[in-house]
Amino acid sequence: MIIEHKTVIADVKLVADFRRYILYWRKRFTEQPITDFCSVIRINSTAPAEEQDNYFLLCDVLPEDRILREELQKQRLKEILEQQQQERDDTNFHGVCMFCSEEFLGNRSVLLNHMAREHAFNIGLPDNIVNCSEFLHTLQKKLDNLQCLYCEKTFRDKNTLKDHMKKKQHRRINPKNREYDQFYVINYLELGKSWEEVQLEDDQELPDHQEEDWSDWKEYPVSAVCLFCELQEETVDKLYKHMKETHEFDLLKIKSELELSFYQQVKLVNFIRRQVHQGSCYGCHMRFKSKADLRTHMDEAKHTSLLPERKTWDQLQYYFPTYENDTLLCTLSDSEGDLTAEDPREDDIPVIGEDTAKLHALRQSSILNRLLPRERLTH
Question: Minimal CA–CA distance to 52: which of 41, 67, 37?
């Protein structure tokens, strides 16, 4: 168009549907002269008339062009949201893990959550992704070409690539690669804005005189994952019901009978997560090669509800989650007793910060020496 017709389209990359855009203006140019829509740019204006050229600039300064671009953006967003909803509801998804070749059937979230948990490879929440199959195919193609997904360097063989991604913690995608933008819904929300620009924007404050109206508030599903299998539920109540009926594990009953505080619930959940992740039955201490075998054993032997003594799981180390962004931890409920200290005798004990200016002295005298192995304090 530039060479043959001397027509320039401004910000062409921001046009949501280029084909529809071109067809629209093709029709309009047959109805009226192009100069009615485009700015005329004359180059070589000081040269002789025969050497001068006129170029035509079509841009969104023209109200008609701006409206067209906005309508195309709205239509594209509508199509993307429909596609995303279809993928969210799809139970016929079939995919293979890029790292262990395990096959997954059902919903796409099962495969994405597996790669996040088992291989520390997280491309984002399933509900934020669109055209997931194409996305996974794109990533798989890069791995097949022995290319690191993060730094995008190419290696001589698969084992070298595997070691590199593991040691360098490169099991993630390159956020600067714009090729991936098309697979995230956030990039379709506003005309001409990427996800980085959208996230940097501050929330607009409501005027003081405007009354608070929460009628349009929509609560999004929590997608909490079962402690014993890969099942996800949109509400924590459904998850509790599933664990109770399928695995005979009643977390609410356990909380009530053992009078667990919020933080004790956290430690219990993290303890179970870690045992299951390591393939160990906490009821009989047997170890299994796969989670499927462990799950079958615990269900058949009814060991899911056979909790060990409190001192086994009520430890400092289980304050830390086994999996990053474990939604179940965020849904644990506080009780009135959680607002008071577990031991009433400790209510008035002051907490005094240690002076970190003298690290050597701190390592020798720190109270952490009573809690952690000595060698960990030296790091």
Answer: 41
Q: Which residues of 179-213 are buried (b: 16+ CB within 10 A; e: fewer)?
A: ebeebbbebbeebebebeeeeeeeeeeeeeeeeee
Q: Hey, what amino acid is at 249? A: F
- pLDDT beyond 60 at 360: no
Least-confidence region, from 98-107, 257-266, 329-338: 329-338
Least confident of 137-151, 200-214, 243-257, 303-317: 200-214
Are the C-beta atoms of 17 and 79 separated by less than 8 Å? no
What whole-number distance in Å separates Cα of residue 146 and Cα of residue 152? 9
Instruction: Output phi, psi for 359, to 5 deg.
Output: -65, -35
Cα 379 from Cα 373, distance rounded (Å) = 11
pLDDT tens for 266-312 read 889 999 999 998 889 999 989 998 888 898 999 888 898 889 999 99
CA distance 313 to 362: 29
pLDDT given at position 354: 46
CA–CA distance, 22 with 292 (Å, rounded to integer): 55
Question: How high is the pLDDT of residue 31?
Answer: 95
- In one-letter notation, the amino acid at residue 113 is N
How far is the C-alpha of 224 from the C-alpha of 232, rounded, in Å? 5
Task: Output the pTM of the full model.
Answer: 0.47
Going by C-alpha positions, the residue among 143, 173, 180 that lies closest to residue 158 is: 143
Tokens matching residue 315? 């430890």
Q: Are 228 and 245 in contact (CB under 8 A)?
A: no
Q: Which residues face 158 on adjacent strands?
A: none
Task: Tell me the two tokens of residue 183.
Answer: 């697979």
Q: Do the Cβ atoms of 52 and 105 come closer than 8 Å?
A: no
**pLDDT at residue 21 greater than cutoff 50:** yes
User: Chain-centre distance of CA 43, in angstroms?
Assistant: 49
Rounded (10°) CA dihedral 98, 100, 102, 105: -30
